[in-house]
Amino acid sequence: MTSKISVGDKFGVRTVIKVESKKLSPSDTSTKRVITVECECGNISECGVSNLRPTKSCRECALIKHGHSQTKEYQLHNTAKERAKKQGLTFDLAYTDIIIPDLCPLLNIPLKQTKGPFCDNSPTLDRIIPALGYTKENVWVISNLANRIKTNATPEQIITVGKNLLCLNNLSEEP
User: Fold this and answer.
1) Measured between alpha carbons, how far is residue 18 from residues 6, 14, 29, 30, 59 in Å?
2) How close are the terminal C-alpha atoms of the chain, in Å?
């Protein structure tokens, strides 16, 4: 496949615009084939024959697109995408659809974006109605604690626990 590379050949989003042989060093007599490619974004780069394969983006596009890969939103997006794929759920989110609020909308506690392991205050992506999958209308960011409570109990059970805890602590007269 790579032995007959010509100008105009397409490899994913990159198009070959020049094929040449270059000396490895001024004193060396051997040469190396160098391919100059242009990405759909307009970026021009050189690569060797062994690095010429179909790609979805050039390195610069990937850095621009995925420069957010260290953000919590991007990480939440990617882990949700993997879960959706494994569980056969709908997934139509972009990482820009995920907005992390300062406070958990369910528990009113601050959301902390740490690089370490999850804590109660860590932001998590929650499906409001689990069966509907990961769609823009069906997800929100809540704390890890709220997500665990929500996952393990029905709304009615959560209300019952809350009422009983209030009664137990004499904060409410109503059971």
Assistant:
1) 8, 12, 22, 20, 18
2) 75
Q: Is the pTM of this model over 0.70?
A: no
Q: Is 42 left (phi over 0), alpha (psi -120 to 50) or beta?
A: left
pLDDT digits (tens, 9 = 90+) for 119-171: 999 999 999 999 999 999 999 999 999 999 988 788 899 999 989 888 888 76
Residue 82 to residues 5, 86, 123, Cα–Cα distance (Å): 36, 6, 17
List C-alpha distances in Å: 6 to 48, 118, 126: 14, 51, 49
DSSP states of 90-149: -B---GGG----SB-TTT--B----SSS--TT-EEEEESSGGG-B-GGGEEEEEHHHHHH
Which element (helix H / strand E) includes 53? none
**28-86 tens-digit pLDDT:** 777 788 888 888 777 788 887 777 778 776 766 665 555 556 678 888 998 999 999 99
Whether 111 and 150 have beta carbons less than 8 Å apart is answered as no
Residue 11: name the closest of 20, 19, 2 by CA.
2
